[in-house]
Design goal:
The complex is a heterodimer of chains A (194) and B (510). Chain A is built from six helices and seven strands; from the N terminus they run ααβααββββαββα. With 194 residues, chain A is an alpha+beta fold. In chain A, α1 (2-22) crosses α4 and α3 (47-73) runs antiparallel to α4 (77-107). Chain B has 14 helices and 19 strands. Classes of the chains: A alpha+beta (194), B alpha+beta (510). Chain A binds chain B through residues 28-30, 32-34, 115-116, 124-132, 134-135, 159-166, 192, 194, and chain B through 143, 331, 413, 415-423, 426, 429, 431, 434, 436-439, 443, 451-452, 454-455, 458, 462, 465-466, 469-470.
Chain lengths: 194, 510
């Protein structure tokens, strides 16, 4: 619960920040192309933010340790400079990701239409995938230990095409189950062969 | 479906020479080991002269011979035993689809069942050595790709062809069993395209490519890249001559990879010419058959229905000569790029006719939708060649400045539609649309469309794909009138040339 409270506030705060960086809020024709305003779009859970940030925390910590070690424990100018530079680069890129992640996470959205499921994502590189229910061969719900702890799961739609990239991470576990069952039922109704 | 062993009468074996062919590598290895073991006595060349003169120590020779013989015996015995336990049979329960049972393995028993309705294509291949003694390999290509394909090696060439016919009969018979091709029986068409007569004698030669034509075409296609790289090499040499060896050493880093690239490219070209030599394209009752190869030959049958993408390519130097190449994408055949060649080189008009016969689509037809203004800035060289045409049952995309390509896919096989936009595209207000095709088929892409148009186009593609989903590759949907593209047919098809596409017969029934 504490997790969630923390995430939610963090999520909002960072989203406001992210607007400045990525220009994700100004509505353009392209926005309407990728996020059709006439549909109801579901956003993914803010808990995904924590999961994604945890991945970045590891390298950042390593960078910090390196930095301390380089400044305190090492002797010889060359070694200190190299270690410090490496550490600073690590920390800087981790920080950059830390800042960008909210905007990336908040860009994941999905919408169910009568005949197909729409999944959209990305800020710099945007993508919209339209998967007809009749083409879904496998619907996968997967969760790693961290996401299980956060109560979220990843829903993956598999078609006969390897190029179909319809993955929705950060769906609350119970919603994911429901969605899976609903999609499976719709898929069965609209099933078509290869 | 029976999974038990079928009656003995139905069991078939591979050709009796199989064990020898299977084990010849092993025998070779055995010989090498034998020679290696007695290397001390053999490493001087003079030994052989001694043998010839009868002066060598005979015991050594006998030992070598004995080892080689023993290894050979074991190898042949093992191969013979594994040949003994290998059998296959085609089991058919008349209404249902046939199944190929394959049983093999001496130590680890392996039994596979192949549902013949799932077979994508049947090839009769003759590798060089097997070809010399009249053996052949029958290969069944499955939709799941390379792992799932089954090879029957070796069979007598005649048996191989008979087996191929038999399997094809099953694959097409299932079509009617599942109602996919039900039109043909009630069609009243005297030559039902679905039931091939035995022996491959029905195959009609549609086109062949002479080797000289192929070599010329291959050279022309590869020439620009070759010239550029050769120019690069000459440039480096000049730099070395003018400024001494300093820059040359630096350029050496460039020379080595460039030379390597040239050698690789040349090798590929030669290999391509070898595999495509003696290229013949036949029309068979079930679809089309390709026969090609100089050293080893392949015979690939492609069911027209299984074609999920077809493209015409015109490399830069071919355009003036109005030559073109036709390639097909068949689901599952992803790894064999060469096998996808439907015509390695032909005239442009013939290529168009061929595509038209297979798909009913005129790739030269008008109605092209050109890309927006953004495309011009994003792709200043190639934007003129970008276009999209939506036909009644499939979509064509054109692209490629250097290798002008037109790629057709049937809506019915599209798995999903996706739209992508990179940051540069976002700036220029364009987006790229994709039709995601099954594995083994290239992704269909409409590059750099205006955002406003991309939305409409995407919706339209999704809608058309939905409408065609229940139909087959090239079949027009029941609801759509086909009158638009019809009149052109007559011009292309002579009387003796029955249309290749089965949907012709389907449609007349509808």
């Amino acid at each position: 619960m504490i997790w969630h409270a923390a995430t939610l506030s963090g999520f909002r705060e960072w989203r406001v920040l992210a607007r400045g960086y990525c220009g994700g809020v100004r509505e353009t024709a392209a926005d309407r192309l990728f996020v059709d305003p006439s549909l109801t779009w579901e956003r993914v859970s803010p808990a995904l933010l924590i999961e994604r940030r945890l991945v970045v925390v590891g390298p950042a910590l390593v960078g910090l340790v390196l930095l301390v070690w380089g400044l305190v424990g090492l002797e010889g100018t060359g070694a200190v400079v190299v270690t410090t530079l490496g550490a600073v680069t690590l920390i800087a890129s981790a920080l950059m990701w830390f800042v960008v992640i909210p905007s990336m996470v908040s860009s994941w959205r999905y919408a169910e239409r009568e005949q197909d499921l729409l999944v959209t994502r990305g800020r710099m590189f945007r993508q919209l995938t339209v998967v007809p229910y009749g083409r879904m061969q496998v619907i996968e719900v997967s969760a790693n230990p961290v996401s299980r702890r956060l109560g979220i799961a990843t829903l993956t739609l598999v078609t006969a095409s390897a190029a179909t990239d319809a993955r929705i991470p950060g769906v609350p576990a119970d919603v994911a189950q429901e969605l899976r069952d609903r999609l499976a039922a719709k898929g069965e109704a609209a099933a078509a062969g290869l | 479906m029976t999974t038990s062993v079928p009656p003995a009468a139905q069991l078939r074996r591979l050709h009796p020479l199989t064990p020898i062919f299977r084990s010849w590598r092993l025998i070779g290895a055995g010989a090498a080991i034998g020679v290696g073991a007695f290397r001390d006595n053999l490493d001087q060349l003079s030994f052989f002269w001694d043998v010839l003169r009868g002066e060598a120590e005979l015991s050594v020779l006998i030992k070598v011979a004995l080892v080689v013989l023993a290894v050979a015996l074991v190898a042949v015995l093992g191969a013979w035993l594994s040949w003994r336990v290998t059998w296959f049979a085609i089991v058919a329960e008349p209404p249902g689809p046939g199944t190929l049972l394959l049983h093999r393995g001496l130590v680890v028993r392996q039994r596979s069942q192949v549902r013949l309705s799932r077979v994508q294509s049947v090839d009769v291949n003759q590798p060089l050595v097997a070809r010399l003694v009249g053996l052949a390999v029958v290969r069944l290509e499955m939709a799941a790709g390379d792992d799932a394909s089954v090879s029957l090696a070796y069979l007598g060439a005649k048996d191989a062809w008979a087996l191929r016919e038999e399997i094809l009969r099953h694959t097409s018979a299932t079509g009617s069993a599942t109602g996919l091709a039900s039109g043909s029986a009630s069609d009243g068409d005297e030559t039902s395209p679905l039931l091939p007569q035995a022996g491959g004698r029905d195959d009609v030669l549609v086109a062949e490519v002479s080797t000289s034509h192929l070599v010329k075409a291959s050279l022309l296609a590869g020439a620009p890249a070759l010239l550029i790289t050769l120019g690069w090499l000459v440039g480096l040499a000049v730099v070395a001559a003018v400024w001494g060896s300093g820059p040359f050493v630096a350029g050496l880093a460039g020379i080595v990879p460039v030379t390597y690239a040239i050698v690789v490219a040349l090798r590929q070209q030669v290999a391509a010419v070898l595999t495509d030599a003696n290229f013949r394209l036949y029309r068979t009752p079930a679809g089309i058959r390709i026969s090609a190869g100089l050293t080893s030959t392949i015979n690939r049958t492609i069911d027209t229905d299984r074609i999920q993408g077809i493209r015409i390519e015109e490399p830069l130097l071919w355009r003036r000569l109005r030559w073109a190449r036709v390639e097909v994408d068949v689901a599952g055949a992803a790894d064999e790029a060469k096998a996808a060649s439907l015509m390695p080189v032909t005239t442009r008009s013939q290529a168009l006719t061929l595509v038209h016969e297979l798909t009913g689509v005129d790739l030269d037809a008008g109605g092209a939708r050109l890309p927006g203004a953004g495309a011009r800035r994003l792709d200043p060289l190639g934007w003129r060649h970008l276009a999209v045409v939506l036909h009644d049952h499939g979509a064509v995309t054109a692209y490629g400045r250097w290798r002008q390509t037109r790629f057709f896919v049937p809506y019915a096989r599209a798995q999903s539609v996706s739209v992508q936009q990179g940051w540069l595209q976002r700036r220029l207000n364009v987006a790229t649309l994709h039709l995601d095709m099954p594995k083994g088929v290239s992704r269909w892409a409409a590059h750099h469309r205006d955002v406003a148009e991309a939305g409409e186009l995407g919706d339209e593609l999704a809608e058309r794909a939905r409408r065609h989903r229940s139909t087959r590759s090239f079949a027009p949907p029941p609801a759509v009138a086909e009158s638009g593209s019809e009149p052109a047919d007559a011009a292309h098809l002579s009387e003796s040339r029955r249309p290749l596409a089965r949907w012709e017969s389907d449609r007349s029934e509808r």
